[in-house]
What does this fold into?
Amino acid sequence: MLEIHTLVFNPFQENTYLLFDDTKECAIIDPGMLTEAEQDKLVAVINQLGLKPVVALQTHLHVDHVLGCVFVLEKYGLSPMAHKADEFFLEITKSYAQQFGIIIQQNPPALGGYLNHNDEVKFGNTALKVIHIPGHSPGGILFYNESSGILVAGDVLFKGSVGRSDLPGGNHHELIDGINEKLMLLPDDVKVYPGHGPSTTIGLERSGNPFL
It folds into this structure.
């Protein structure tokens, strides 16, 4: 059975997720740790749960979701995997962070691999299906585990809202079309874990999300 643990990091209150099953192999999704204290918190939770990180995954490569990528590479030897369409963000992370008053020493590491729509990411006894929905960012992807009814949604779908589309490479129509065509087909009880804020379900968003 797939389990998920949420950690909230950095001034953007970004959700970093640990996904693991009974093998204790673990995926780190969107590591957002900015400070040493946040890095220590991630390590403490991984150790406390007895996890072995084996893959680092990115829903997208906006600054608030990649602040911990260097640490994850140095600590666990894991390079981030993401969609190629977002790769250009890596080169501007340091300068973009400065616009928010956030000082980082270097840009995130190069991607360790590319993920495309309908790809499968496997670890332990778990397989995550990759769903590509551009609109918040060109390479926005989500990770879906059908057997556990878990969807890690990045900044595509939120409780009662959807992702911003006014950032570089954003497109509101692509975002809404992608959500309707690819997510609203999923069962009502699928639990959605967004990049910020509380979890929700597909059923709740289908019936009550004003943007849909």
Notes: The helical segments are 36-48, 63-66, 69-76, 93-98, 172-183, 202-208.
